[in-house]
User: Which sequence fits this backbone?
């Protein structure tokens, strides 16, 4: 296991929204969101070339250039290169949920040259000369075998050369995360949606692998597509990419009832749950509205009684 020491602040901002995820933001609106995060004490920022075809990196980089470099931790992702789209017809990248012109296309490249190019191009978009952490982004969507053979070794070489500080993988597939941890030399992984208050499949294979290998965890998508973002979820809420399955809804209702019993806000519990495991370094939250960013920071700091967690565990809703 790598001996890289990277201290990641416990609360991070996931910058997909400032890449116009789901809706368009002006530059000023995006800046206001980032300003709210900084003023709320957020000092970890995560982005990716995928987010808005580079727009997230450009906006986040412009903002962070105004801050002392040693006061924040920055991560981005590799695996997809941005290249001119020969079929651009004036449309938007809404097939990927980003409201930006699709003048560029994403091209998978797990080669050594591709990984190096990805990082250098990210640095150019960010306008920063140092990236603290680089995750391989969703490798199973392209070729996990190739990632293990080529992309992860390329990241390891770049870390050894001092080009980047730490390396990892980001995915919402537990099997891909667990295998990556066991077969590559990773510092930090990002678990998206698979270790949340509502469901914890990563607890079965990913977290044990991280403990064995000394690999840290960053938890993302902790609201399960927004299902846990409100104190009182509604039946028409979305889960993943569709409606809420009956068994998931029933489980959620049990959690909500225990929240009521202990006067705990559901989103506060959702934010704080992953951090209860010592292997989890941080929770990353995204938002397109300054007021929501500020509220998330308050929820992250809210007091939650230990009896609440004990009752959830007794009801087999979270690991004991």
Assistant:
């Amino acid at each position: 296991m790598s001996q890289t020491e990277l201290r990641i602040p416990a609360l991070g901002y996931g910058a997909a929204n400032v890449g116009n995820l789901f809706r368009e933001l002006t530059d000023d609106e995006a800046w206001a969101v980032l300003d709210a995060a900084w003023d709320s004490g957020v000092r970890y920022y995560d982005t990716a070339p995928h987010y808005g075809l580079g727009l997230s990196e450009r906006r986040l980089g412009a903002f962070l250039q105004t801050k002392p470099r040693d006061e924040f931790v920055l991560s981005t992702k590799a695996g997809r290169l941005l290249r001119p789209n020969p079929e651009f017809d004036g449309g938007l990248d809404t097939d990927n949920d980003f409201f930006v012109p699709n003048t560029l296309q994403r091209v998978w490249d797990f080669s050594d040259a591709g990984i190096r190019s990805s990082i250098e191009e990210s640095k150019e978009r960010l306008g920063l000369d140092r990236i603290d952490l680089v995750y391989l982004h969703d490798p199973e969507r392209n070729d996990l075998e190739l990632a293990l053979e080529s992309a992860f070794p390329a990241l390891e070489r770049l870390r050894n050369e001092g080009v980047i500080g730490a390396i990892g993988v980001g995915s919402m597939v537990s099997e891909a995360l667990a295998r990556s941890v066991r077969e590559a030399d990773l510092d930090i992984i990002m678990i998206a949606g698979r270790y949340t208050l509502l469901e914890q499949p990563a607890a079965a294979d990913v977290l044990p692998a991280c403990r064995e290998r000394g690999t840290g965890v960053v938890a993302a998508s902790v609201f399960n597509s927004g299902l846990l973002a409100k104190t009182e979820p509604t039946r028409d809420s979305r889960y993943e990419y569709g409606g809420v399955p009956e068994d998931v809804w029933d489980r959620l209702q049990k959690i909500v009832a225990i929240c009521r019993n202990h006067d705990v806000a559901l989103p506060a519990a959702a934010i704080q749950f992953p951090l209860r495991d010592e292997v989890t370094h941080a929770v990353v939250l995204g938002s397109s509205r300054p007021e929501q960013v500020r509220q998330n920071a308050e929820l992250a700091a809210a007091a939650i009684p230990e009896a609440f967690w004990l009752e959830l565990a007794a009801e087999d809703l979270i690991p004991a």
Notes: The chain has one domain: 11-234+266-305. The domain at 11-234+266-305 is CATH 3.20.20.100 (TIM Barrel).
